[in-house]
Records
---
Amino acid sequence: MKIALISGSHRPTGNSPRITRFIANQLEAKGHSTYVLDLSTQELPFWDEGLWGMEGLAAKWQTLWAPIQTELADADAFIIVSPEYHGMMPSKLANFFLLLGNGATVAHKPALAVTVSAGISGAYPVTELRAFTSKNNRMVYLPEHLIIRNAGEVFQPETKPEQAESNTYLTGRLEWLLGMLESYATAFQSIRASGYTTNSKYANGM
Ligand SMILES: Cc1cc2nc3c(=O)[nH]c(=O)nc-3n(C[C@H](O)[C@H](O)[C@H](O)COP(=O)(O)O)c2cc1C
């Protein structure tokens, strides 16, 4: 199974890219293949009408977006890792969802939301991801999610004694969620094959 992970942080040295790589390693140890899109290092312009084919704006997207889109289309499931920035998902991640548009790239495929806070936040981006990032692209979030608080202390090579209990809890919960994502991904293959998931008459979800 191929799982694509998107890290929404703007900071290459942030916790989200590190945690995304940690999760990718866990998946690879289970025999899955992974694709990691780190938005802190993968420069993507803001959405423009080139994605709708406008002359003069379209050509760059063939180089910048088409290879990413191919990787995402090839994936069976997704993990969206969002930091909390002032109670929101970061703008690079919001732009990523604009770039997805309403094509079939991620449609009717399961996604696990993972949110990352250096403090004790992390609930706002869960709400934002669930409410505002899948209407037209039709990605399907699992009913469970993972909020990583005190992120600087989590999934590190060395665990401080006072962080051991929470790290054990989060490691176990992540393990459970990755199993759940895999089982959803298997089941959703038959949902996509049912023929009920596309209807050009209702392309924009309303
Ligand atoms: C612009 C900005 C705003 C932030 N706002 C919040 C916030 O509202 N709540 C919070 O818990 N952490 C906030 N943080 C800290 C992040 O939670 C912290 O950096 C965490 O590690 C996730 O972001 P990262 O992946 O970029 O490191 C903010 C960080 C930045 C850079």
---
Amino acid sequence: MKTQIFTLLTVVLLLVSCNNQIKDKSSVIANKNSHNYKGPIIDMHIHAFTEGNPLFGMTHPPTLRGETFEGVTSAAEQKEKTLEKFRKHKIVKAMVSNGKLWFDDVPETMLIGGADKGIDALRNQHQEGKLQVIAEMAPFYAGILADDPSILPYFELAQELDIPVGFHIFPGGPNYGFHMMPEMLGGMRTYNANPAQLENVLVKYPNLRLYIMHGGWPYVEDLKALMYAHPNVYIGIAVVNWILPQEEFNAYLKSLINAGFGDRIMFGSDQMVWPQTIDIAVETVNSVNFLTPEQKEDIFYNNAAKFLGLTKDEIEKHKNQ
Ligand SMILES: [Zn+2]
């Protein structure tokens, strides 16, 4: 009897594990069959650095997914490897902070971002045709809020020039960055990271075209409140698409899409010195099991095209590439 029970148990266990294997296999097959977007991509968040940037050669500490990345070691390598990813993923437009450094290499792709100088200097840069987006604004790292009097002139300029503005909040720096790099990230506070800090700005400058650059995670409820109140707020999903575990990214994205904001979510990577983050960012969005092909197309291209005001001809050209 004991033997029979044992055998029965073994059979049951085997069946259960077989069944699990079948289930696992079918979910793998389902994922493989899930639509991989192949069209043009707009990346709303990239950085071009000059030689000597302290990030060169840095190994990215383990993300919440547990991955680490070896940093490129020079400005030339950063440019070469990033532009290689542009070709690989059909990135036809990219908002590149300090993008004037790469402008001659890919003039048609480049949207030059800048926010690292005074208002007059930025206005001049715009007049010279070398500034299309005021970004990346990150006073958060210094513990300064968006509606601080020292920051408001940047929003005012963006509204005056009618160009988009990109504002970085959370997540910023690697997880536990405060403890790892206090000299670089010591000024940030999570209590200064909520997207709600943008509300006074949006009320003061109602015609702003503003996007939140790192997805505003994990303040999803506050993000929804802000997007509900202000139709001109978009979000970029850079960084959250390569640091968050896939399930957490899915939950975050689903919450925004369920609320009806799927037409204001834009792809970005925030590639700094780790070019493979672009691959992971693209793959993460492609791996979201509930997105339809149309929703993927919106996130990878259409929403940004609308936000940036690309012409019909430009859009057609990109889609036929
Ligand atoms: Zn950035």
